[in-house]
Specification:
alpha/beta; Rossmann fold; seven-stranded mixed sheet; 7 strands; 39% helix
Length: 200
């Protein structure tokens, strides 16, 4: 049985990222520096050939897809959007350090920021979005694809589903980087497990 290869690639940098802000569902464009960094990366490393590109609906991911795979028309997967930080959107940890809800959230006492997304529901949504991609690939006979997504989404997906087993914070990736994962149908459909093969 053939294995499906999927490249999980983090979007390029935004001005909000540079300021250290919590940027989840806020729909920021790539910064000029982010565009330049992706363009340089594309010349430096050889991004893998893929038959199809999928992307989060947010602008920074769609722009990244256009830079890295300009010949492909990316399919948008709504469930792969980034985490909703609620009242913490657009703020830095320094700005929030005196906020009691921020302390409760970062210490695990509450599962969501005020007005934000529950972390368990976020993980479920990301896994559903990935499953939508896998099912679409299988239905269309696509064996190599890229997903342009968010750092938090990559970390969450791999901590939930990937071998080797690692904690979320051990699956970080720089802008324009990520992981190649392999989906073996029998393993995936029986246990929901994917295998990380290499870093991008």
């Amino acid at each position: 049985m053939k294995t499906y290869k999927i490249y999980l690639i983090r979007h390029g940098a935004t001005d909000g990222n540079a300021r250290g802000e919590y940027i989840g569902v806020t729909d920021l464009a790539l910064s000029l520096g982010g565009v330049a960094e992706l363009t340089e990366l594309k010349e430096k490393i050889q991004y893998p050939f893929v038959e199809k590109v999928y992307t989060s609906p947010l602008l920074r991911c769609r722009q990244t897809a256009n830079i890295l795979y300009p010949e492909q028309e990316a399919d948008i997967v709504e469930n792969l959007s980034e985490y909703d930080f609620g009242e913490f959107e657009g703020k830095t940890a320094l700005q929030l350090e005196s906020n009691p809800d921020f302390y409760k959230w970062t210490s695990g006492q509450i599962s969501s920021p005020p007005g934000g997304e529950d972390s368990t529901e976020f993980a479920k949504r990301i896994c559903v979005g990935f499953h939508e991609v896998v099912e679409d690939m299988m239905a269309r006979g696509i064996f190599k694809a890229a997903i342009i997504m968010h750092g938090g989404a990559i970390m969450t997906l791999l901590s939930c589903c990937a071998l080797p087993r690692r904690r979320s914070l051990e699956w970080t990736s720089d802008f324009g980087r990520g992981y190649q994962v392999a989906v073996t149908p029998t393993l995936y459909h029986s246990n929901g497990v994917i295998e990380v093969r290499e870093e991008i």
